[in-house]
UniProtKB/TrEMBL annotation:
GO biological process: bacillithiol biosynthetic process
Protein name: N-acetyl-alpha-D-glucosaminyl L-malate synthase BshA
Pfam families from the UniProt entry: Glyco_transf_4, Glycos_transf_1
Superkingdom to which the source organism belongs: Bacteria
GO MF annotation terms: glycosyltransferase activity
Gene3D superfamilies with a match to the protein in the record: Glycogen Phosphorylase B (3.40.50.2000)
Glycosyltransferase subfamily 4-like N-terminal domain location: 18-185
Annotated source species: Candidatus Glassbacteria bacterium RIFCSPLOWO2_12_FULL_58_11
Listed InterPro entries: Glyco_trans_1, Glyco_trans_4-like_N, Glycosyltransferase_grp1, Thiol_BshA
Residue span(s) of domain Glycosyl transferase family: 200-358
Length: 388
């Protein structure tokens, strides 16, 4: 896709902690900066993927004030104030917010504060639970809908999320589908990359990996049961990366099922690429998943994927070609598919090759960033969301 020459000043807001939407937003910002755009991250903390210095990248910390009257800090407002200030000070062309709640609402407030004649545009990228769980709660639903309708541009990371948004919120406006991406240079099978496979899985065990923030939606019980069934047939280790409320329960269940010794709970890690580089299989058992960024990182590294049919993964994983899909909760099927892949080296090699090909053809950081750039220019040329 041909790149537009015009350089933009873009404010990006995301959750700075571990989580796919923050990762995606940060990598997008870094890639846009490489193209010469000026990027201003606006959040309450430095995004964790933004360690180090990057040319054309600025960070603006939202101060969260404490006042005895506030049991809950009004972050939505302080964020809006910072967006407004940064837009004025640096002459931003657009605010691109990731995860609707409350970022899209803050951006709308900032835009209103800038006044009717200000040319700023707001683009909201919907990521997942901002639509499927949190945003659909009664306490958020009307403001989520309002903020989507009032954004100048809206993108969703999968067809599944697009459909879900339109159905759940009766959205009439256009929503652009721009899928997530991965850095295929960083995430690739490499014999020289540090892997520590012997430490993770001594005595030639197969390595199954899972990466998530371990919330109920991930169905960690299913994950451990799938692994226990696999372990009863072959020597394997389950590497669990990330942390969250379901971690303790998963640990207990692994002990109960007698596979605790083969489950390695690593907690949050930065070196995901190295860990995937020494993995044989990626396992995910989610109830719903708008995309599944870790799936993409696994496929890019040539790691076949076992996943549930839970939305986005059905668009990314080609069933029977680079992974297998099962119904949500079908532990037996996922275990059988895992065993097939881990015991048939020809099948594993073919799936691994197809996985990498699939990512290179559809989900590279360069191609998807170009799609965002093209969308930015389209939105910048369109009339204001409120018809002004
Ligand atoms: O929605 C969440 O659970 C959090 C969110 C995040 O911030 O990490 O994850 C969502 O966005 C990711 C990036 O687009 C997607 O890869 C995840 O599939 C999606 N999570 C869910 O839909 C459960």
């Amino acid at each position: 896709m041909a790149r537009r020459a015009e350089k933009l000043r873009i404010g990006i807001t995301c959750y700075p902690t571990f989580g796919g939407s923050g990762v995606l937003a940060t990598e997008l910002g870094k890639q846009l900066a490489l193209q010469g755009h000026e990027i201003h991250f606006i959040s309450y903390a430095l995004p964790y993927r933004l360690k180090g210095f990057y040319s054309n990248v600025y960070f603006h910390e939202v101060q969260v004030s404490s006042y005895p009257l506030f049991e809950y800090q009004p972050y939505t407002l302080t964020l809006a104030v910072k967006m407004h200030a940064v837009t004025e000070e640096y002459g931003l062309d657009l605010l691109h917010v990731h995860y609707a709640i409350p970022h899209a609402t803050s951006a709308w407030i900032a835009k209103e504060m800038l006044g009717r004649d200000h040319p700023i545009k707001v683009i909201t990228t919907l990521h997942g639970t901002d639509i499927t769980l949190v945003g659909a709660e009664a306490s958020f639903k009307s403001i989520t809908r309002f903020s989507i309708e009032r954004s100048d541009g809206v993108t969703a990371v999968s067809r599944y999320l697009h459909q879900h948004t339109v159905g759940e919120f009766q959205i009439k406006r256009a929503i652009e589908i721009i899928p997530n991406f991965v850095d295929t240079e960083l995430f690739q099978r490499s014999p020289v990359k540090d892997c520590s496979r012997d430490m993770l899985a001594p005595d030639g065990s197969k390595v199954i990996i899972h990466i998530s923030n371990m919330r109920p939606v991930k169905r960690m019980g299913d994950l451990i049961r799938v692994f226990a069934a696999v372990r009863s047939r072959i020597k394997a280790r389950l590497i669990l990366v990330g942390d969250g409320p379901e971690r303790a329960g998963a640990y207990q269940l692994a002990e109960q099922l007698g596979v605790g010794g083969d489950c390695v709970f690593l907690g949050a890690q930065e070196s995901i690429a190295s860990l995937l580089n020494c993995s044989d299989l990626y396992l995910q058992t989610s109830a719903t998943e708008s995309f599944g960024l870790s799936i993409l990182e696994a496929l890019s590294t040539g790691v076949p994927v076992i996943s549930t049919r839970c939305g986005g993964p059905e668009e990314v994983v080609l069933h029977g070609e680079c992974g297998f899909l099962s119904e949500v909760g079908d532990v037996e099927d996922m275990a059988a598919n895992s065993i097939r892949l881990l015991t048939d080296s020809d099948m594993h090699r073919a799936f691994s090759r197809k996985a990498r090909e699939r990512v290179i053809e559809n989900y590279t950081i360069q191609d998807i960033t170009a799609r965002y750039e093209e969308y930015y220019h389209r939105v910048l040329q369109s009339p204001n969301s409120s018809g002004r």
